[in-house]
Amino acid sequence: MIFVIALFTKKRYYIECEIIINAPLQKVFDYLKYLKNWDNFNERAVADPSKKNEFKGTDGTVGFIYAWRGNKKVGEGEKEIKNIVEGKKIKTEIRFIKPFTAVGHTNMATESVSGNQTKVIFSNTSKIMYPLNILLLVVEKGIAKDMGESVSCLKNILEK
Question: What CATH number belongs to 2-158?
Answer without folding.
Answer: 3.30.530.20
